[in-house]
């Protein structure tokens, strides 16, 4: 059971949480009236995808792309729910933004964000380090300077966005996701009360992944030396998938052996960084995360006890339109 529990994860979305397993995902969003809207989707991975997941390093690139695609779908859903149920976000006809337009807008935003991320976290530190290289040796020292600049920009960015109220709420749902996953992995019951005592920090978190990418980039780029500026730019962009694949394997190993104290010491910086991207969730956030994970577990045939929550749960489609009232959250798998 421990191995099966470790495969579940998720991410925070707008006023909600997406949880996923191997074959199913569920996104739960808190509505303005307090109800929880749930959208469930079967992933049905292809046979080749199952094979790819067993290939070290290659699986890292595949997993990151899959995470991006599923994450955007969950964000589209949460935004669609907001448009449909929040009167302040509806247009004059009482309707939200069309799904196709919203999906295109979000994918465009993702593409722009990826481009800006490459520029901000890879090319900007390189440019600053290239200036410093006039006074510093172009050996390991200059790569340490570049890595330090990259880390400083990352820390500043995370600290800055976390000061906005909307992002702070997303970080609260991020903490709720971690607490709920902890509760399931430790064998606790799926409930707000059981999840509440657990930490908002988790060894498999994507925030820690970013820190590992920064650390590995120093090592990888150091082996390339300090060629011309053009080749330095090309290498920073071209090797991002390679560094990401390495970081993914480090995350997997760290999560697998996390109970060993040397591993916990090595992972401490990545856990500390999560304090910038998580907040202590309130009970409504925990409740939303619990509902999302419960729906995935039921869909994947896990035998889970009944849920007792204070607000109705409704099933909606990918556009946020209500399909049925009062999901049988108390039904155990197999009934």
UniProtKB/TrEMBL annotation:
Transmembrane segments: 62-83, 104-128, 140-160, 208-227
InterPro entries per the UniProt record, alphabetical: DUF1385
Keywords: Membrane, Transmembrane, Transmembrane helix
Alphabetized Pfam families for the sequence: DUF1385
PANTHER family the UniProt entry points to: MEMBRANE PROTEIN-RELATED
Protein name in UniProt: Hypothetical conserved protein
Species assigned in the record: uncultured prokaryote
The organism's taxonomic lineage, starting at the top: unclassified sequences, environmental samples
């Amino acid at each position: 059971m421990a191995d099966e529990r470790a495969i579940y994860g998720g991410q925070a979305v707008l006023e909600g949480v997406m949880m996923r397993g191997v074959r199913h995902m569920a996104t739960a969003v808190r509505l303005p009236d307090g109800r929880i809207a749930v959208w469930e989707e079967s992933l049905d991975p292809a046979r080749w995808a199952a094979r790819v997941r067993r290939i070290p390093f290659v699986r890292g690139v595949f997993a990151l792309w899959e995470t991006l695609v599923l994450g955007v779908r969950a964000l589209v859903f949460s935004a669609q729910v907001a448009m449909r149920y929040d009167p302040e976000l509806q247009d004059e006809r009482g309707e939200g933004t069309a799904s196709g337009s919203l999906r295109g807008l979000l994918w465009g935003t993702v593409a722009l964000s990826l481009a800006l991320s490459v520029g901000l976290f890879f090319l900007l530190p390189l440019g600053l380090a290239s200036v410093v290289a006039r006074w510093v040796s172009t050996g390991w020292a200059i790569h340490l300077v570049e890595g330090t600049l990259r880390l400083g920009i990352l820390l500043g960015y995370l600290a800055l966005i976390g000061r906005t109220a909307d992002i702070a709420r997303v970080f609260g749902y991020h903490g709720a996701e971690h607490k709920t996953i902890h509760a399931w992995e430790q064998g606790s019951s799926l409930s707000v009360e059981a999840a509440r005592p657990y930490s908002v920090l988790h060894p498999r978190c994507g925030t820690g992944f970013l820190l590992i990418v920064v650390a590995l980039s120093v090592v990888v780029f150091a082996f390339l030396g300090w060629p011309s500026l053009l080749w330095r730019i090309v290498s920073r962009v071209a090797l991002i998938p390679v560094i990401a694949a390495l970081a993914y394997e480090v995350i997997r190993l760290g999560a697998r052996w996390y109970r060993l104290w040397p591993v916990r010491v090595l992972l401490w910086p990545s856990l500390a960084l999560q304090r910038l991207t998580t907040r202590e969730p309130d009970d409504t956030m925990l409740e939303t995360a619990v509902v999302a994970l419960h729906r995935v577990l039921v869909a994947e045939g896990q035998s889970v006890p009944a849920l007792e929550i204070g607000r109705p749960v409704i099933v909606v489609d990918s556009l946020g339109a209500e399909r049925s009232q009062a999901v049988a959250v108390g039904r155990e798998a197999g009934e």
